[in-house]
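Priority: medium. Attachment 1 of 2:
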């Protein structure tokens, strides 16, 4: 899973990017 904004690697349950703080939730809802 990667941030759609900066491309940083995210954890499977990450809701925010640790690098750019962009919301990166891949969950439905």
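Attachment 2 of 2:
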């Amino acid at each position: 899973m990667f941030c759609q904004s900066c491309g940083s690697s995210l954890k499977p349950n990450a809701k925010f990017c640790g690098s750019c703080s962009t919301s990166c939730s891949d969950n439905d809802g």
